C-alpha cells in the first residue's frame, strides 16, 4: 500500500497533472460560486475536455473541480446572500449575516479554513476507512433513509428563531412545495394545475435563489439610498484571520462536523446538502449561545462548512468501493470512468490501483491548492463588497436571472424565481424564517419516496420504520433534536 501511495504522489505531481488540478479547481470555484451552475453541471461541462487526456490527468482535473465547486458555493453565499450550492444555505444564514455586520473578511476566512479542514479530514478518512464506511452505507434501505431525512428536518427547531410555530409553518410550506409535480411512485400529476411548467416540480435552486437572494434585495430596497457595506475593508491577512482561540473553543464542533459530513456523504443519494444541515442543526442544538443562530453565529458557519466539504470524501468512498453515487456530482463521475474504459466498484482497486490511489492523492492536494487559490482571490472578492448598493443589488439580480434562466433556458424559471422572491419578502416581513421552507423543499421529496417505499416493502405496516436499529437511532435523534430546545429555551414555548 505504501508503494502505491509513493507512485501516486510521483504521478500526480507531474506538471500536466498539477496544471489540470489548478484549472479544475479554478473552474470548480467559479461553477460553485455562480447560482445555476452547480458543481454537478460543472463536472458535466468538463467531461468533454477529458476525452483526450490520460485517465489520471482527467481525474486530477475532475476531483479538483468537485472540491472547488463545494468550496466556491460559499463565496457568493457570504458576500451576496446567494447560495451557489444547496449545501450553502446555512452559510447564507450565518455568513451573510456576518458580512452585513461588517465582518465579511472574517466570515470568508472562517469558511475557507473550515472547508479545507473538512475536505482534508474526509480524504484522510477515505484513505484509511473505505471498507468500513462502504459496509455501513450498504445497511441503509428506505426506512433508514426516511429516518435520516426526518433527522434532517428536525433541524427546523434550530432554524426557527424565536418562534417554533413560525418555523414549523415554514417547514410545512416547504413540504407542500415538495409534493408539486409528478408522483415518484405512480407517475401521476399533483398540484400541477394542468400546466407543463410544474410537471417536473419546483426546482429547489430557483426557489432557493428567490426566497433568499431576491427577497433580501426587496427588503434592502426599502432604504433606496442606502450605501451597502462601504465600511467593509481588507486590513491584511493577519488582521482578518480568525484567532486560534476561536478554533480551540470550537474543537468539538470541528471534530463532530467533518465526521457527520463524511458519514452522510457516504450514503447514496444523501450528499453535501443533508450533511451541511445536520451538522448545522447539531451546532445549533449544542451551542451555548443559541440566540445568535440566524444572526451571524460563527459556530454554525464552521459546522456547515466542515460538513459540506467533508461530504466529498464520503461520496467518493462509496463510488470507488461500491460503484454507487453518493451525490449528483459523483453520479457524473461514473460517466468519466466509463469514458476511460473503467467501472467504479469493488474490482477497481485490484484492477486499476494506480487510479484509485491517484484519486486519493489528487483530492488531498486539491484541497491544499484550493486554500492557496482562494487566499489569492479573497481580496478581489472583498472589493466587490464595496460597491454602492444601487450597483450591488443590480449585479445580484443579474446573477440571479442568469442562474435561474440557465438551469433549463426557460423563462418559466424566471417567473418562479420572482414569485418566490415575493413570497420570501412577505415571510420576512411577518417574521417567518425562510430556511425551514428551503430545507423541507430539498428533503421533502426524498422523505416521501423513502416512506412510501418502506410501506410498500412492509405491505403497509408502519412498524418497519422502527424495526431496524439504525432507523430507531436516527428517529430518536430527531425527537431529541426537536424536544431538547424546548427545555433549553423555555421562552420558545411562550411564543407557540
State the gist of this model.
With 496 residues, this protein is mainly alpha-helical. The protein is built from 23 helices and two strands. It has helices at 2-12, 15-33, 39-47, 55-80, 89-100, 104-138, 142-153, 156-159, 164-178, 204-220, 237-240, 244-249, 251-265, 271-286, 298-322, 328-339, 348-351, 353-384, 389-408, 411-429, 435-457, 469-488, 491-494; strands spanning 181-182, 189-190.
Please name the defining characteristics of this protein.
mainly alpha; two-stranded antiparallel sheet; 2 strands; 73% helix; disordered C terminus
Molecular structure report:
The protein has 496 residues and is an all-alpha fold. The protein has one domain. 73% of the residues lie in helices and 1% in strands. The protein has 23 helices and two strands. Strands 1-2 form a two-stranded antiparallel ribbon. Helix 9 crosses helix 21. The chain is globular, with a radius of gyration of 22 Å. The C terminus is likely disordered.
Amino acid at each position: 500500500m505504501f508503494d502505491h501511495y509513493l507512485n501516486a504522489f510521483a504521478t500526480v505531481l507531474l506538471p500536466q497533472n498539477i496544471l489540470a488540478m489548478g484549472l479544475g479547481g479554478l473552474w470548480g470555484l467559479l461553477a460553485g460560486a455562480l447560482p445555476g451552475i452547480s458543481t454537478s453541471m460543472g463536472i458535466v461541462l468538463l467531461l468533454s475536455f477529458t476525452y483526450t487526456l490520460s485517465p489520471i490527468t482527467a481525474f486530477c482535473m475532475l476531483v479538483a473541480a468537485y472540491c472547488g465547486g463545494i468550496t466556491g458555493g460559499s463565496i457568493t453565499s457570504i458576500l451576496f446572500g446567494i447560495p451557489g450550492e444547496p449545501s450553502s444555505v446555512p452559510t447564507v444564514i450565518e455568513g451573510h449575516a456576518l458580512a452585513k455586520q461588517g465582518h465579511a473578511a472574517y466570515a470568508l476566512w472562517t469558511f475557507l479554513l473550515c472547508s479545507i479542514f473538512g475536505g482534508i479530514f474526509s480524504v484522510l478518512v477515505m484513505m484509511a476507512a473505505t471498507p468500513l464506511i462502504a459496509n455501513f452505507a450498504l445497511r441503509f434501505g428506505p426506512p433508514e433513509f426516511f429516518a435520516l431525512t426526518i433527522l434532517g428536518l428536525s433541524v427546523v427547531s434550530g432554524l426557527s428563531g424565536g418562534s417554533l410555530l413560525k418555523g414549523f409553518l415554514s417547514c410545512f410550506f416547504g413540504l407542500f412545495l415538495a409534493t408539486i409535480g409528478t408522483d415518484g411512485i405512480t407517475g401521476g400529476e399533483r398540484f400541477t394545475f394542468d400546466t407543463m411548467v410544474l410537471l417536473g416540480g419546483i426546482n429547489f435552486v430557483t426557489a432557493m435563489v428567490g426566497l433568499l437572494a431576491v427577497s433580501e434585495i426587496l427588503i434592502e430596497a426599502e432604504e433606496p439610498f442606502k450605501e451597502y457595506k462601504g465600511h467593509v475593508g481588507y486590513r491584511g491577512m493577519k488582521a482578518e484571520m480568525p484567532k486560534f482561540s476561536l478554533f480551540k473553543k470550537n474543537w468539538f464542533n470541528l471534530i463532530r462536523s467533518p465526521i457527520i459530513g463524511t458519514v452522510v456523504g457516504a450514503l447514496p443519494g444523501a450528499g453535501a446538502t443533508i450533511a451541511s444541515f445536520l451538522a448545522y442543526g447539531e451546532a445549533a442544538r449544542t451551542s451555548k449561545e443559541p440566540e445568535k443562530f440566524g444572526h451571524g453565529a460563527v459556530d454554525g458557519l464552521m459546522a456547515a462548512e466542515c460538513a459540506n466539504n467533508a461530504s466529498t470524501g464520503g461520496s467518493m468512498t462509496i463510488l470507488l468501493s461500491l460503484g454507487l453515487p453518493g451525490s449528483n456530482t459523483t453520479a457524473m463521475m461514473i460517466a468519466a470512468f466509463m469514458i476511460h474504459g473503467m467501472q467504479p466498484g469493488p474490482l477497481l482497486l485490484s484492477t486499476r490501483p494506480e487510479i484509485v490511489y491517484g484519486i486519493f492523492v489528487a483530492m488531498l492536494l486539491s484541497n491544499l491548492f484550493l486554500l492557496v487559490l482562494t487566499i489569492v482571490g479573497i481580496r478581489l472578492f472583498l472589493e466587490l463588497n464595496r460597491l454602492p448598493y444601487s450597483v450591488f443589488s443590480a449585479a445580484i439580480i443579474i446573477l440571479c436571472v442568469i442562474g435561474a434562466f440557465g438551469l433549463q433556458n426557460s423563462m418559466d424559471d424566471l417567473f418562479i424565481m420572482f414569485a418566490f422572491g415575493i413570497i420570501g419578502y412577505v415571510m420576512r416581513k411577518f417574521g417567518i424564517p425562510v430556511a425551514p421552507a428551503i430545507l423541507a423543499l430539498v428533503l421533502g421529496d426524498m422523505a416521501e419516496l423513502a416512506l412510501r417505499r418502506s410501506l410498500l416493502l412492509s405491505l403497509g405496516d408502519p412498524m418497519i420504520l422502527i424495526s431496524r436499529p439504525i432507523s430507531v437511532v436516527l428517529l430518536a435523534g430527531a425527537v431529541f433534536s426537536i424536544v431538547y430546545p424546548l427545555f433549553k429555551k423555555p421562552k420558545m414555548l411562550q411564543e407557540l
